[in-house]
Design goal:
CATH topology: Rossmann fold
Distance between the termini: 30 Å
Shape: globular
Number of helices: 5
CATH superfamily: Flavodoxin domain
CATH architecture: 3-Layer(aba) Sandwich
Strand content: 15-25%
Length: 203
């Protein structure tokens, strides 16, 4: 997968951020990188994958995953899903488009979710959280929309100092949202701590 960025820590515990914005290096990506930096400083391996430029089709309800075949659509989801399975933490980051998460990240949620549920709930027990950016409104619905994906897959969602949302429209504008950036840092600290705690219990 070409559109990824990673930073390694001293631990083999990994957090993956999936950015569902069609904008490269936009506000959503900036917020996700900010959160990952906190977790990298805490010693976790981190990676960011942009969905922009990737070929990920929506679920077509073929039901192949129900018979244990996995997803039969051949595109960029398969290598991304492999990264999700090998990660101990997953962040879904999306801007708000018409009051909702983007079609890019919804396609990942639909197909990865079905594959995981049909293959022994492969993502259960991992730590996960949304990150949401919008110009004005729609944060809470989009955040809740993505939280429900984590919950139905049996993942653990940490809290932060506020809901992990931020405001911004033009590139870089999110950096001016002081509270939003601090909330992202708070999420990063809590998520790193939870990944480590769950990792210790699993050993």
């Amino acid at each position: 997968m070409g559109s990824s960025w990673s930073r390694s820590g001293y631990s083999n515990m990994k957090v993956l951020a999936i950015v569902g914005s069609p904008r490269v290096e936009g506000n959503t990506e900036a917020l996700a990188r900010h959160t990952l930096d906190v977790m990298a400083d805490a010693g976790l391996e981190t990676e960011l994958v942009r969905l922009a430029g990737l070929d990920i089709a929506p679920c077509d309800a073929c039901q192949a995953c129900s018979s244990g075949e996995g997803c039969v659509i051949e595109d960029d989801l398969q290598p991304l899903y492999a990264k999700m399975k090998e990660s101990q933490g997953i962040i879904l980051a999306s801007p708000v488009y018409f009051g909702s998460a983007t079609a890019l990240i919804k396609a990942v949620m639909e197909r990865a979710g079905y594959i995981a549920l049909r293959s022994g709930n492969a993502l259960a027990g991992k730590v996960g959280s949304p990150l949401v950016v919008a110009r004005r409104a729609g944060h809470n619905f989009t955040y809740t929309q993505m939280v429900q994906w984590f919950i139905i897959l049996g993942m653990v969602v940490p809290g932060a100092s506020y809901w992990p949302i931020a405001f911004g429209r033009a590139k870089g504008e999110v950096e001016s949202d002081t509270e939003g950036m601090e909330t992202a840092r708070s999420l990063g600290r809590n998520m790193a701590d939870l990944v480590k705690r769950l990792g210790k219990e699993a050993r």
